[in-house]
Amino acid sequence: MVARHASAALMIALLAAGTAHGDTSRLPPKVLPKSPTEVPILALALSADSRVLATGGMGHTIRLWDTRTGKELRRLRHRRGVIALAFSPDDKLLVSAGADSYVRLWNARTGEALHQFSTKDARSCIAFSPDSRVLAIGSGGTVFRFDTDTGRELTPLAELEVVVVALAFAPDGKTLASATEEGAIQVWDLATGKRLRDMPHGNGSLALAFSPDGKLLAGGERGLVRFWDATTGQERGRIRLGIGQVGSSLAFSGDGRTVATSGGEEPSIRRWDVATGKEQKPLPGFEGSIVPVSFGPDSRGLAALDRDALAHFWDMADPSKKRECATIKLTATEAELLWDDLSSEDDYVAAEAAWELAGDDERALSLLNKHLRPEAPHRPIADLIADLDDNRFAVRQAATSELERVGRAAESALRGALKERPPLEVARRMEFILERITRARLSPERMRDLRAVEVLERVGTSDARRLLEVLTKGAPGALLTRESRATLERLDGKGAR
Question: Are both 232 and 360 inside the same structural domain?
C-alpha cells in the first residue's frame, strides 16, 4: 500500500481495522485542527495486525496509538511535516516520508530511528516488499530500493523522464508496479531490474494496487479505475467513478472482491464490487477526502479521518455502528518547543508549528497568554526624530533603534522630516532608518508574534478573541496592534466559536 501526498485537499487515510482485538470503541484521536480556509496534510498507517495506528501531518510529531484502548504509545520526531506513513507487512518497521525530502525508517515497536534516506524531492511515494526486507521509494523519476536491515541502497530501477507518483509490490514480491504523473504504468522484474511492460493510463495515474491473489493490477485516475491482467498487461475492466471523481487512492479488500476508492470534488469513501463494477452501499455519516485507502486481511473494519481531522471507525459487519474518537493534548514542553518553532526562518517549520498549536485550543491559549504582550508604547515619533540631532551619541543611537522598532508607522514622518533639509549627518541617519524599514526582514521575534496571532485566528474561540483584544491595546500603528485588530475584524465576520 502506498501512502501519497495530496496537495490540494486534506490528506486522510482510510485504513482497515483488520483482525479485531478487544474493545474497538476507543480509537486514536484527532491530530490536527480544522480550518475554515485551508486544510493541513495528514498521513496515517495501520499495522497489519490492526493494533497500532500511526498518525502524522503538518507538525513534526508522528504518534503511535493502541487501537484497542485509544492510548498513545509513543511519539517520534520528524524534522518537518510528514506526508506519508507505512508499516512493513511484518509490523516491525514504520517508514515516514517528510517534507524535508528525507525518508526515515523506524523500529515500530521501540520508536528507535534506524535509517535515513535522502530523496530528490518532498513528493516521495513509499512501499514495502511483502517480506518487509526491501523498501521502495519513488522520488523524481527514480525508484530507489533499500535493504531495510542494513539501510544499504540496492540497485535502483531505471531512470524515468517523469515523476513517479505511486508504487505497488505484487504479492509474490517478484514484480513492482510504478505510476508516473504523465499517465504511464511500468511493471518491473525485481530480480533483473528490467522493465517487463508499460500500460498506458489515459488521464494520469494517481494510485496503484495489486489484488491479493496477484492476478489483477488496479490503477486509479481521473474519473476511472482500470483493471489489468497483472501477467499479460491486458485491460480486464473499468469502474467509472463519475464526473469530478478521482481515483487518487484505492485498495483491495482481503478477499479481493471489493475495491475501495477515494478522492474528487465531492470526496467520500466508495466501495465497489470488482466482479460487477457496481457500487456497494455507502458508509454512513462521513464527509471528507480519503488518501490513502487500505483494507486489512479480513476486511472487517475501516477507519478514516474527516474534513475536520476527526477519526471515525466502522465495523464492516454493521457499518451503522460508526464511532468517533477523542482529541489529543499537547504537553507543556511540546508547546514551548512549538513556540520556539514559530520564530524559525524556515517558513515551513513555522507553519507546521502554528497548525500543531492550533490543534489544542486550551494549551495554545495558555502558551500565548504567557508569551504575548501588547506592543509597548513608544515616545512620540516627532520627539524621536528630534533626538536624531542630539549632541549626545547615546541619545542619537537610542532614537535610531527606537525608530527602527516603530517601523512603517514612522515612515511618513521620517520622509517629511527629510524634505526639511536637516543637517547631513541627521539626513544620513534618516535615510539609513528608512532603508532598514522598507527592506529589512522582520526579526524572528517579531515574526513569532505575528504567527502567534495567526494561531489565535485559527483557534477562533471567545478566549482567543479576548487575547486579541488585549493586543489591540498596544502602541497605535504598531504592526502587532494592527494585525491583531485586523484578525478580530475577520473573526467578527465569521463569528467566534
Answer: no
- Structure pTM? 0.66
Q: What is the pLDDT of residues 182-224, one digit of tens each?
A: 778 899 999 998 999 888 666 666 788 999 899 999 988 877 8
- Rounded Cα distance between 20 and 197, Å, is 39
User: In this structure, are 365 and 285 located in the same domain?
Assistant: no
**Number of structural domains in the chain:** 3
Residue 259 lies in a domain: yes
Answer yes or no: is 3 within a domain.
no
Per-residue pLDDT, 126: 92
Range of the domain at 148: 15-324
Q: Which three cell numbers stand for residue 476?
A: 497605535
C-alpha cell of residue 265: 470534488
DSSP string, 334-355: HHHHHHHHTT-SSHHHHHHHHH
Q: At what angle do helices 444-459 and 462-471 cross, to 10 degrees?
A: 150
Query: How far lies 123's CA from each of 138, 189, 219, 495, in Å?
Result: 8, 24, 19, 37
- State yes or no: cis peptide before 292, omega within 30 of 0: yes
Query: Does pLDDT of 235 surpass 80?
Result: yes
- Helix locations, 204-264, DSSP H: none
Output the nine-digit C-alpha cell for 424: 547631513
Is 6 within the bounds of a domain?
A: no
Question: Are 94 and 119 members of one domain?
Answer: yes
How many residues can be counted in the chain?
A: 497
- One domain, residues 302 and 435: no
Question: Is residue 8 included in any domain, yes or no?
Answer: no
Among 59, 26, 10, 99, CA closest to 359: 59
